[in-house]
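Hi support team,

I'm opening this ticket because the web form for multi-chain structure prediction keeps timing out on my end. I have pasted the exact lines I submitted so you can reproduce it. The total is 221 residues across two entries, so I didn't expect it to be a heavy job. Is there a limit I'm missing, or should I split the entries? Thanks in advance, R.K.
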Amino acid sequence: MTRYPLLYARRELVEGNGFVARVAVSGRALLTDEDGDFWVEGINPGGFAANGKSPSEALAELCSTFRAILFDIAADTESFGDFRAAVQKFFDETNAPALREWDEAVQQVKAGKLNAEWLAKRPADTKLGVDVVEVRQPAATNNELGEAALAA
Amino acid sequence: MLDACAPGAVIVPKPHHNWVVWYGRTYRGLPRGKHGARQNPEIEIGHVKKMARFFEILHCAKTKMPALA
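Hello R.K., no limit was hit. The queue was backed up. Here is the completed structure from your submission:
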């Protein structure tokens, strides 16, 4: 099995009960090649995973799953404040076993023993976090495509 | 498996996934199965394995579900 330490960024717009929220996440995940079946496990946020027949398919599925979880959280909360708190809790639930392997994989990348040509590299200590903002004045300038990178 | 390895765990159906809550932590990514809201859907074993890993009960889970090994 080969494990790749990933950093990713996503921005999603979510409708909740009486509010619209923009969720911007800078997260980390572990991509594992399990004999041609690719799995991605969220680390922060943790508690979800996705798979595919290629790295890009698995990553696309992870993003889709992430969005669906935000929808589940929105359906479960009655106010913007509750939603923001629940999303923060989701982000903070670290996947500890995956994090240990992520750290090991970062060391392999730094040592030049692991690479992923299809991904750009970003520093492993890139700031992580989730920002949840209530949207009151929508603007096209807030649109942003997601990205993924190899943590190095 | 959850009864044996994560006693007290609760499965909470949500619109898009089943959430599994145990010991103050929540696994939010368990698919609801091909037919959505069935009570006992067939879940891809890989997702169950990732959930067991998240809860750090994989060793126990493997003894209860040989398919996870």
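A quick check on our side: Residues 26 and 129 of chain A are 5 Å apart (CA to CA). Let us know if the file doesn't open in your viewer.
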